């Protein structure tokens, strides 16, 4: 979460901003979904601005770590938050009422395949998104700090 007086910027996209505000107002991600799948809320630092930004993503968890998938619905380019994580891999993740710090790392090879399988199981449209784009959709694993 933001420190007192720290600049936080909300998404310009209505549905993202509305989901974020709902989490912040209720204090939990429980019961908040994207297309029927549960979410977690990331608090990231902007790559260019340094401002804190909130990003709701699908909940993909295993053994205390999480995966976040930079799908952007299968668009040809990465979502903006991909670059934020690359520039500032230390972030916070809220799952339910628990908010903890994590360190993100982009995964490749067998580890990516393993997490990709978990992600598709949690949110099947990811498979369709990969078919729509020529880029390999990046997967980050977030390990607790």
Automatic annotation (TrEMBL):
Tell me which domain of life the UniProt entry assigns to the organism this sequence originates from.
Bacteria
For this protein, what reaction is catalysed? oxidized coenzyme F420-(gamma-L-Glu)(n) + a quinol + H(+) = reduced coenzyme F420-(gamma-L-Glu)(n) + a quinone
A molecular function GO annotation:
oxidoreductase activity
Give a GO cellular-component term. Answer: plasma membrane
> What is a single Pfam family found in this protein's UniProt entry?
F420H2_quin_red
Q: Which family does it belong to?
A: Belongs to the F420H(2)-dependent quinone reductase family.
Name of protein: Deazaflavin-dependent oxidoreductase (Nitroreductase family)
Q: Which organism is it from?
A: Saccharopolyspora spinosa
């Amino acid at each position: 979460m933001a420190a007192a007086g720290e600049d936080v910027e909300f998404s310009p996209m209505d549905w993202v901003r509305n989901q974020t505000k709902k989490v912040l107002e209720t204090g939990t991600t429980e019961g908040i979904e994207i297309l029927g799948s549960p979410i977690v809320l990331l608090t990231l630092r902007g790559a260019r601005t340094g401002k804190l930004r909130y990003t709701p993503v699908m909940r993909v968890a295993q053994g205390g770590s999480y995966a976040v998938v930079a799908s952007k619905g299968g668009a040809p380019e990465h979502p903006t938050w991909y670059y934020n994580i690359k520039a500032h891999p230390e972030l916070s993740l809220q799952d339910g009422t628990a908010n903890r710090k994590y360190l993100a790392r982009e995964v490749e090879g067998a580890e990516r395949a393993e997490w990709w399988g978990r992600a598709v199981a949690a949110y099947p449209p990811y498979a369709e998104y990969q078919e729509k784009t020529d880029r390999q959709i990046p997967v980050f694993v977030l390990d607790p700090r």
